[in-house]
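Preliminary data (for renewal application), pyridoxal-5'-phosphate complex.
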Amino acid sequence: MAVSAGQLDAHWMPFTANRDFKKAPRIIASAAGHYYETVDGRRLYDLFSGLWTTGLGHCHPKIVEAVQKQVATLDYAIGFQVSNNRSFELAERVIDLAPPPFSQCFFTNSGSESVDTALKIALAYHRARGEGHRTRLIGRERGYHGVNFGGMSVGGMVPNRKVFSASLLPGVDHIRATCDLEHTAFSRGQPEWGAHLADDLERLAGLHGGDNIAAVIVEPAAGSAGVLPPPVGYLERLREICDRHGILLIFDEVITGFGRVGASFAADYFGVMPDIITTAKGLTNGVIPMGAVIVQSHVYDAFMHGPEATVELFHGYTYSGHPVAAAAGVATLDAYAEEGTFGQAAELAGPFGELLHGFADHDKVIDVRNIGLMGAVELAPREGKPGARGMEVHKRCFWEEDLVVRNGMDTLQFSPFLNAKPDDLEAAIARIRRVVDSID
Ligand SMILES: Cc1ncc(COP(=O)(O)O)c(C=O)c1O
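Predicted structure:
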């Protein structure tokens, strides 16, 4: 069904150039498997698997069926002091999938909520242990942790922060980003250069007093900033510094969780265990909004003191552990296991990286980055018009090549389906190459 002028006007779209979009709207009406269909009946191959969300493909029959059944059985149940059976079922499944030290899971509705929940848990954890002076939070430049006030404050993407800069959380600081094209450009997977950048945390511990810092939050491999894999040895060093100062380490795995790097979680993939993991996107294959914050037992146990009838954490959302979302989550985890999805992703990661690095010889390309099934091709910006080239590629792919390719400014970002077919990927990348060849 087409969208009327009135409908277009009524919708204030997120992270979108609304006026430009509304001149030539790019609107999807349905999806199946690896393809979208637009309102005017065109089929588009989705190279971003939703928004890093839909690794199993769209409208997966098992998840659709689970949601349909659940919504007709228990549509909603109060979640405070009473709960629903499906949320417990999903919690256990998530913990079974998580690395062994993780033991509890707190449900949210999005990545932003997972991040703000994790930051609050970190602050309350220290207070519960008698270290309430640990109030500082540390993020990283170019980090993306969603758009709520906590996540925005620890985030390090300038356009997302600058309008609100005077209202960000106090007591937040940032370590340096891990990407420096002079040293890291065209690295395949993790760059060899850059482990020493973790020492920036030691510098901030010196500046603020390590015993005043509650937590450090990083994406183990940054996604929205344009796919920045961690340098070899970097995450290990961050962990060591956190241990030295009693700082909690939070991995924001909203993108990297549930198979995106070819393992259940990036913590497993890199072999570095944080204290808290935030997740969302792949938890329900993008079908119903849901996130989860996963903690190690020492975090949970710190709260389980005092009178038993007292609420231990004054935090939660009306829709935390929503039964329909939880049913979607259980069906998603079932499908991952039955179809061997994470193994498929691990196998595809090598060929996918090779395809992307085929752009390395292009005169408009200044970097190619990849880790697992996350990839980026960074184009040189047009003189005086940063972002214009990337946006042109996005639009021409949509209109001329029947492809959904996301750009963040001049960086083309790729998040293929975890079960993508290698031939489809190859064909799609060849079509993007045609577009990149033809732009000025
Ligand atoms: C690492 C990370 N954290 C948090 C978020 C925010 O998630 P949401 O948009 O679901 O609030 C995102 C979204 O892309 C993300 O990539």
